[in-house]
Amino acid sequence: RDVPDFALVAGVPGKIVGWVCQRGHRLQFGSTGVGKCGTGGG
Questions:
Q1: 42: pLDDT strictly greater than 90
Q2: Over 60: is that where the pLDDT of 41 sits?
Q3: Confidence of residue 40 (pLDDT cuts 50, 70, 90)
Q4: Which of 2, 5, 6, 17 sees the fewest Cβ atoms within 10 Å?
């Protein structure tokens, strides 16, 4: 299957377990559903 851009995939078969910013840092999602880079720059 295709993997969406910026998806973090783990396991066999692969499952989406999170999302990353353009620099590869994991995104944190707040109550509004907006993702923020863990380093504050994404």
A1: no
A2: no
A3: low
A4: 2
Higher pLDDT, 41 or 21: 21
Q: Tell me the torsion sign for CA atoms 17, 19, 24, 27.
A: negative
For residues 6-39, b (16+ Cβ closer than 10 Å) or e, as one string?
A: eeeeeeeeeeeeebbbeeeeebeeeeeeebebee
Which residues pair with residue 1 across a beta bridge? none
How many whole angstroms separate alpha carbon 36 and alpha carbon 23?
12
Structure tokens at 6: 């910026």
Query: Structural domain boundaries of the chain?
Result: 1-28
Going 27 to 16 to 7 to 25, the CA torsion angle's sign is positive
